[in-house]
Specification:
By secondary structure, this protein is of the alpha/beta class. The protein has helices spanning about 10-25, 30-45, 55-70, 80-95, 110-120, 165-175, 190-195, 200-215, 220-230, 235-250, and strands spanning about 70-75, 100, 135, 145-150, 160, 180, 195-200. The structure holds adenosine-5'-triphosphate (ATP) and magnesium ion. Adenosine-5'-triphosphate binds near residues 40, 182, 185 and 202. Adenosine-5'-triphosphate (ATP) binds next to helix 2, helix 4 and helix 7.
Length: about 250
C-alpha cells in the first residue's frame, strides 16, 4: 500500500486504486479489470463522486425487486469481490434465499479460486460458481464467461450483476430475468439493457442497498410491487444523463 494521506483531495479514489493494483499483483484480477476500474473512475468524477437522486431511486427499486424475488442471485466478478466483498456478503444475508455466484469475464481456475477466497474471508458461505462446480452455458454466450450455475443464475428470477458486460446482461434479460446492475457508465450497453440500472460506484451503492433493505423489509408485498411497477429504467437513466450534461454546462463540480 502506498502512503496516501487522508487529507489528499483524491484520498478515497486513491485508496480504491491502490486496492485494485494490489489485487492485480496478487493475481485476483485480470489486467483488463484495472482498465474497467479506470473507466468507472472517469464517470464517477463526472457524476461528482456521490450517489445522485436517480441512483437512490434505482437502489430502492432494486431492493424491492430482490425482496420480491423467488430465487435472487448476487453475481460477483473480480472487481466487485475486491472492492466490496463484505457488502455483498452482508447484503446476501439480508435477502431471503439469496445465493452468491462467482462469474468472471476472463475466467481462469486460479482467479476463480482467489475470488472464492476473498468472498469466504468476508464471511460468504455456500458460494456458487466455484471451479469444481457444475455449470451450464448461458444461451447466447460463448466460452468460459457463458458459465452459469444450474442452481444460481440459471434458475434465478432476479440477478444483481455489478459491473457486468453488455453481452452478458443482454443474454440474462433475453432469458427473462430481471437484471439489476450497478454501473457508473449510464451509456454502457449493460446500463441500457438492464431492467434496473444503479448509476453509482458500487462502494457507495452497496452500503446504501443494505440500509434500504432494512427499511423496505417492513413493506407488504403489495407495497413492494407498487415500487417496482412504477419504475421506468429508461426515464431514470435519462435523469442521470441530465445531471451529466448540467455538470458540463456549469463547468464546475456538482
Ligand atoms: P458494456 O459492455 O456494458 O457496454 P463496457 O464494455 O464499456 O460496457 P466493461 O469493461 O464491460 O465496460 O465494464 C466495466 C463497467 O464498469 C464500465 O462501464 C465502468 O464504468 C463500470 N465500473 C467500473 N468500476 C466501477 C465501480 N467501482 N462501480 C460501478 N461501476 C464501475
Ligand atoms: Mg463490455
Amino acid at each position: 500500500m502506498h502512503d496516501i494521506s487522508p487529507t489528499h483531495p483524491r484520498y478515497h479514489s486513491l485508496i480504491l486504486r491502490d486496492k485494485m493494483a494490489k489485487a492485480y499483483q496478487e493475481g485476483i484480477l485480470a489486467d483488463t479489470a484495472l482498465i474497467a476500474h479506470g473507466r468507472g473512475e472517469a464517470f464517477d468524477y463526472i457524476l461528482g463522486e456521490k450517489t445522485n437522486p436517480p441512483a437512490k431511486k434505482a437502489i430502492i427499486v432494486a431492493i424491492a425487486s430482490l425482496l420480491l424475488a423467488e430465487n435472487p442471485v448476487l453475481s460477483v466478478n473480480g472487481n466487485t469481490a475486491v472492492l466490496a466483498a463484505e457488502d455483498i456478503v452482508n447484503l446476501a444475508k439480508l435477502i431471503p434465499g439469496a445465493r452468491v455466484e462467482i462469474n468472471l469475464f476472463y475466467r481462469t481456475p486460479q482467479r476463480v479460486l482467489k475470488v472464492q477466497e476473498v468472498l469466504e474471508n468476508a464471511g460468504a458461505t455456500g458460494v456458487l460458481g466455484k471451479e469444481s462446480d457444475h455449470y451450464l452455458p448461458l444461451e447466447g454466450l460463448e466460452g468460459p464467461r457463458s458459465r452459469a450455475h444450474p442452481e444460481g443464475v440459471h434458475q434465478a428470477d432476479v440477478v444483481l450483476v455489478p459491473l457486468e458486460d453488455g453481452d452478458r446482461a443482454e443474454a440474462l434479460v433475453a432469458l427473462g430475468k430481471k437484471v439489476i446492475t450497478i454501473d457508473l457508465n449510464p451509456l454502457s450497453r449493460t446500463a441500457k439493457k438492464s431492467s434496473i440500472t444503479i448509476v453509482d460506484n458500487l462502494v457507495r451503492a452497496l452500503p446504501l442497498m443494505i440500509t434500504e433493505m432494512k427499511n423496505l423489509k417492513r413493506c407488504s408485498r403489495g407495497e413492494l410491487e407498487k415500487i417496482v411497477n412504477e419504475f421506468d429504467n429508461d426515464y431514470n437513466l435519462s435523469k442521470t444523463l441530465d445531471i451529466i450534461s448540467q455538470h458540463f454546462k456549469r463547468d464546475e463540480r456538482l
